[in-house]
């Protein structure tokens, strides 16, 4: 039997999870509401909140899994990418926990973990598969050949899709975090109400900075004609924005599937919780006869279950690190 403690602290959510022989027994997440006051994550406040939350969060995860802390065989933690101060808290805790109990330490790449979240529950994708990984900080298309054999096929050249949602929400005067609110209002809107451009970027790379500018100019122009424009048209604007972001993502994914011939297709990361993206991917999968894999909502956003499941796979390979390990703000798949 292998019992893995997973620790996630890459941004503004402190999370701990227990994985027993590849099965997730607990997944506890402590959020940080304070950032809503500032319209975005404040790194210093995030670090301090992680320090406050990490011990009770780990304790809760252990209790929910109905084990004792001395039963744990290894500690897996997010090494990066992420906010350095936040990563330091999780890394330091994991190192101390492992050192005190003389158990192995396992580093996990946060972006790989998002992809490996697909191996928490059935159905699980067969290798190889394509994964569109979309979050506030990353937008990537990855060819997944094995658990830790991944090839980056395309990525954003500027802003991430999640950032495009959140920055658009600011333009629309929606509170932070605005991405889920755009999704909510879009359900009642017309996605064809306002025409927005699709960036013409070569290969499988993405760009969202120009789209954000186009949205800003469109709103400003409409408000000059009608000061109540947003108040009267918010659902239509949200639906149009969401439709364009989703089409940018899925058109590149379709191109990747055609180039590689891979028909197992998955999405991961925080933006994969977006209902418009999930529904459109299922429709596209049906049209092109893909095998589509979409994780449960709780495994889309940052969580320790994905760290624990990735850690479990590394544990099986005896892939451990020493106490000299340090967090990295930037890491590649």
From TrEMBL:
Protein localization: Cytoplasm
InterPro entries documented for this protein: ATPase_NBD (IPR043129), Gcp-like_dom (IPR000905), KAE1/TsaD (IPR017861), TsaD (IPR022450)
Residues annotated for Fe cation binding in this entry: 110, 114, 302
Gene3D superfamilies linked: 3.30.420.40
Enzyme Commission number, as recorded: 2.3.1.234
Alphabetically ordered keywords of this record: Acyltransferase, Cytoplasm, Iron, Metal-binding, Transferase, tRNA processing
Cofactor binding: number and manner: Binds 1 Fe(2+) ion per subunit.
Pfam assignment, any one: TsaD
PANTHER family registered for this protein in UniProt: TRNA N6-ADENOSINE THREONYLCARBAMOYLTRANSFERASE, TRNA N6-ADENOSINE THREONYLCARBAMOYLTRANSFERASE, MITOCHONDRIAL
Family: Belongs to the KAE1 / TsaD family.
Purpose of the protein: Required for the formation of a threonylcarbamoyl group on adenosine at position 37 (t(6)A37) in tRNAs that read codons beginning with adenine. Is involved in the transfer of the threonylcarbamoyl moiety of threonylcarbamoyl-AMP (TC-AMP) to the N6 group of A37, together with TsaE and TsaB. TsaD likely plays a direct catalytic role in this reaction.
Descriptive protein name: tRNA N6-adenosine threonylcarbamoyltransferase
Lineage: Bacteria, Pseudomonadati, Bacteroidota, Sphingobacteriia, Sphingobacteriales
Gene (name only): tsaD
